Amino acid sequence: MVGAIPKFQIADRANRAMSSVMRRRALPLRWHLAAMAALFVPMPFLLVQCGKAPNAEMLAANTEGAKSRAAKPQASSDTFDDRFPTPQFADRFPTANESLPQEGLPQVQRQVALAPQQRTVRTEPVRVASLTPTLTLPRAERDELTTLVSMKSSAFPYFGTNPRSEEPFLNITKGDRKGHRSHSGRVYWQDETYNDSRVLVHVPETFDVKKPGVIVVFFHGNGATLERDVRDRQLVPQQISDSGVNAVLLAPQMAVNAADSSAGKFWQPGGFKRFIDESASHLARLYGDPKSAQAFANLPIVIVGYSGGFLPTAWSLEVGGVPNRVRGVFLLDAVYGELDKFASWIEKNRTGFFVSSYTRYTKRHDEELMQMLRDRGITVTESMDGPLRPGSVVFVQTPDGVTHRDYVTQAWTEHPVKDVLVKMAATPALTRVASTPYANR
Question: What structural domains does the chain harbor?
Answer without folding.
Answer: 140-154+197-430 (3.40.50.1820)
